[in-house]
Queue: 2 jobs
Job 1
Amino acid sequence: MISIRRTYKNKAPKQLAGTNRTFKAAIRGMSAKDAWQYYKQHEKHYSYNTPETKRIFRNMNFKRCSFCTKVIDDFDTAMTVEHIETKHDHPQKIFQWSNLLCACQTCNTKRSTTPRDRKQYLDPTRIPDLERYFSFLPDGTIHPDNSLPPEEQQKADYMIRLYRLDRKDLECERREFFKNLLESDSFSSFLEKQDPSSQNIIFLSVFTYYRRCRERYGQQGR
Ligand SMILES: [Zn+2]
């Protein structure tokens, strides 16, 4: 994971804000359970994953998943909307922009409907320097960064488990990406100026970590 700057004011999705108002008016006074039922019955009439939302997420996230930070190929069809507070438990937040993040299908599915632990959850749009929470080994494994205080490491561990950022396929892909980073000469100059929009950086989290290590320990650092 890395920090993401959320789009606000005139650049936030307008259509979504309209849907949010209409939906909240419709469920006013209802219990969460009834509001959820109402949503399920009227799901067709309300949408959060619109072309507008996709467009804004594409720019905001540089076509990446907010959790594994992997580039989402075929963004318009493969990107999913992740609800920080789940739809089921917090139906009043289904269309609330600050509750939405962009995710790849796998990360979204791995968490599924698990409610969030507010004390542990790391919202990438609210935490600056989120990248310092995680470290990556050349074998592709992800770990809470051990330079952090234990309670902060616990949050990193929570996020790793919630979105299964330690899943085998990701480890394998990160290992491959790491290998390319270490071997490629051109990456050395590439590392100098971080360009999060570059789709050559498959995993922005791994790239950022490697770059940080390099700054800390010199060129051979990892
Ligand atoms: Zn992902």
Job 2
Amino acid sequence: MNYGTQTQRQIFTNGMMGKKPPIPLHYTHLKSQAQAKLTAEQFAYIDGGAGQGRTIRANEKGFEKYPLKASMMKASSNINLEVSILGHKYASPILAAPIGVLEMAHPSADIGVAKACKTMKTPMIFSSQASFSMEKCAAVMDDSPRWFQLYWSKSDELVQSFLSRAESCKCDAIVVTLDTTRLGWRPRDLELGYLPFLRGLGLAHYYSDPVFQYLVNQNMNNDNLQDEGKNTISFSGLCNLIRLCNKYPGSFRSNLITGRALTAVRTFTNIYMRPELKWGDLIRLRKMTNLPIVVKGVQTLEDVHMAEQSGVDGVIVSNHGGRQIDGGVAAIHCLRSIAQEYSGHMSILFDSGIRSGADVIKALALGADAVLVGRPYVYALAIAGETGVETLFRHYLAELELQMSLMGISSIKEINSDVLY
Ligand SMILES: Cc1cc2nc3c(=O)[nH]c(=O)nc-3n(C[C@H](O)[C@H](O)[C@H](O)COP(=O)(O)O)c2cc1C
């Protein structure tokens, strides 16, 4: 692999022809260019987080506590970025985090990301709240690696159906997100009164699922549910209802007249999260799938201990990019102690605040086996669709490779706490 010099050379050669890269390289520029492309609601949903945004700021600032050390005269011309996670070989230690409602960023949404991930050999984690079904994404990915992220629904039958579909889509692992058994308090979305799911966005897996459709059928005859919100409808409510009926499978007319599109969204809001989820449920999950299970959103040694006891194969140290708890600790500060205790026993991944190839090295040095990139690729998608995402991952790999070379590191295996001060 030679992303570093090749990418750099390409960018400078294009520059000679007056051509700029399709997306900015600095995170601040990436974010502001994406903001210009998005509506206030879309940008707030992607950029925002819990409360006053203190955990988001802590996540990014946290990386400054771990300066990198460079050793001279050790560089190799051939840098090996390969890693092995849960028995699978991947081209690099970077995965695309599960991100819901990608259609808010770009119409190509998950399909654009899936194609970019395939080109860059980046494993993609399909979100439960996808805009395109996992089958449609898998269809454009050939053998490119993919995982499935699960929000554990109130309906175990639906969970089982999602798991079976993920197996059929040849996912390598199931990621169960533990930190979002309820939606965090997100003032920026609340100020705008905007929750995409209520508008039928991010529901592709549900709409395409036979168990979900069975639940909608049942609710079509449920008077309590049908009576919900039977008050006068405003102009904006009417516009949203029209959009909802357009998005729902089947004919617009029948979706509107029967009220099925609205019932589907109500069915979703009634079942999509299970606040009373317990560690014991993971033992049940173990029996529901043969795929490796990774839990996402753990931050403490106690929780990793419980995860191990529950038979999971890996953890993602994460605080959901600061979207759930305000005033929390930077996720990067949680990594070292967890890795010291559990590295080698289970796979340890990390997300929340990765903004560059250099950040990837820091997370690996603190003990992560691999990292998930979140918001940066969503902004790249907003700016330039599939090309934007592909370019973002190319830039991250280029920087990672160059930094490793300049620090005297030849392979991911060599990255450990010795590369930190
Ligand atoms: C717009 C948006 C949607 C997200 N949707 C999901 C999701 O559906 N499932 C999930 O487990 N995490 C979701 N996450 C969290 C990411 O997987 C990841 O933990 C987070 O983005 C990492 O923080 P960072 O983006 O600041 O690096 C979402 C994050 C954002 C920004």
